[in-house]
């Protein structure tokens, strides 16, 4: 190996050593930054403005990751804790969800009472009704006399769900029927709506729940509360 080749080898070795030194320096900077920032944890960001006293649902929030040291002690790190909660003030888009922004949803308001009925699992909104949901209650009735048309009626509008119980097997009314499964659902209702609901449970052929979208229209005109197939145009 002549002197020129030796110089080339030496330069290559020096270049490799410099590259290793630079790489080690970068790793040192990264490690230093990580040590200053610390581990990351889950937090939740408001996706769009939420009005005060609105029942909270998981789809209103976006999951993000951020350094634990930058997160306040009252930040919400799990959406399991928002069930049955409402916003106490306007939640602004982009803000981090914190426990002091939410409170337990009042169970009953003045003039209301708790009423629980069994809803057939096949005719309810399976798996989509949760505490805080708003529903319209439909009931179908057979004609009172021979020749009278069957009717579907909206018994209660904008009923607030307080609790959803466990799926329960019900014995059939007679030997020719198959066993059914039902879910006990508890509502917060006025006295009149409670009477309407219990009447429907006792005398209607079927009682169904229609989930109302958050912020959706809940009032139904009187002319649209009763449906008969013969009058459908």
Write the layout of secondary structure elements.
Layout: H1 3-37, E1 40-46, E2 61-67, E3 85-87, E4 102-104, E5 112-120, E6 134-141, E7 151-164, E8 168-170, E9 180-190, H2 191-203, E10 206-211, E11 226-227
Antiparallel strand pairs: 1-2, 3-4, 5-9, 6-7, 6-10, 7-9, 7-11, 8-9
Can you walk through the features of this model?
With about 230 residues, this protein is of the alpha+beta class. It has two domains: about 40-105, Type Iii Antifreeze Protein Isoform Hplc 12 (Alpha-Beta Complex); about 110-230, no CATH class. The chain is built from two helices and eleven strands. The strands form three sheets. Strands 5, 6, 7, 8, 9, 10 and 11 form a seven-stranded antiparallel sheet that branches. The radius of gyration is 31 Å and the shape is elongated. The termini are far apart.
């Amino acid at each position: 190996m002549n002197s020129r080749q030796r110089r080339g080898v030496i330069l290559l070795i020096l270049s490799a050593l410099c590259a290793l030194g630079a790489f080690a320096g970068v790793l040192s900077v990264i490690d230093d930054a990580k040590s200053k920032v610390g581990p990351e944890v889950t937090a939740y960001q408001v996706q769009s403005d939420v009005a005060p006293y609105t029942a909270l649902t998981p789809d209103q929030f976006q999951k993000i990751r951020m350094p634990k040291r930058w997160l306040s002690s009252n930040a919400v790190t799990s959406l399991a804790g928002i069930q049955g909660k409402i916003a106490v003030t306007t939640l602004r888009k982009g803000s981090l969800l914190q426990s002091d922004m939410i409170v337990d949803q009042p169970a009953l308001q003045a003039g209301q009472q708790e009423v629980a009925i069994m809803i057939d699992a096949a005719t309810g909104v399976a798996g989509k009704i949760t505490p805080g949901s708003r529903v319209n209650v439909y009931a179908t009735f057979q004609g009172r006399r021979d020749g009278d048309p069957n009717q579907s009626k909206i018994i209660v509008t904008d009923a607030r769900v307080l609790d959803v119980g466990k799926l329960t097997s019900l014995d059939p009314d007679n030997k020719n029927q198959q066993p059914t499964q039902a879910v006990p659902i508890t509502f917060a209702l006025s006295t009149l709506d409670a009477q309407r609901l219990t009447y429907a449970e006792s005398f209607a052929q079927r009682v169904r729940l229609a989930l109302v979208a958050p912020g959706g229209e809940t009032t139904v005109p009187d002319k649209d509360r009763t449906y008969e197939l013969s009058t459908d145009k």
